[in-house]
Model the fold of this input.
Amino acid sequence: MIKNIKLNSDGSYYKTDVGDHKVSGGDEVLVETEHGTEIGVIIEPCCGKNILGESEVGDRNLTFIRKLGEKDKELAEKLAREAKTFLVECQAKIEKYSLPMELLDADLSFDEKKITFYFTAPGRVDFRMLVSELAHTFKKVIRLQQVGPRDEARFLGGVGRCGRELCCKKFLRGNLESVTLEMAGEQYLAQMGQNRVTGACGKLMCCLQYELEFYKEARAKLPGLGEEIKTAEGLGRVISHNVFASKVTVKLDENDKYLEVSC
Done:
């Protein structure tokens, strides 16, 4: 069986044959890559839809090994702690070469042969000398991965406007399709201004995706905005929806009176 996998080390998506192994979305698994053994996350369709286009899935040759067991997870946690110790040396070398980049985190591959350093930068960075020195220092394959605002928020963590830990830090595993301003419009939030629907990362909040289908289904059962309907007090036009109560607000034609009507 072919599954989509998001590799932890580069955040990219790939396909792999998991055979008869029972895995589902969100499961952490081990795969063999050309650079060694790495951990990835199974990505499955969101809301019944395939979230990945063909252009988004890489063609690297990944060989599925197994779903992470308890001992694997313990080792992965140990390696994660060890990877943190590499940050000090990497930061020192970044400062040595005065590189315009902000170091975020590090990842040590499961077989301990490769270290991936994650960073943000305003543009492209020539880090060839940095990679050379890091490889000489750590005696491992070095990968530097530039990430965007959403990944930066995931690495740094924080609290959203809802008062809860950021979804990208707490549980999201890349299994969410792109968030658009149209989604905010579907939920009557676009008119509140973009700053009200923007997350800590500066991008549209991921949670705009969570209730989108509910809003679409609820609105489909109500008269459309601008539609003329008959009420107990006469004809009027729909000017707003209350999807939670299955009601619409109507402006009556004769006296400009506003009336809330159950549908």
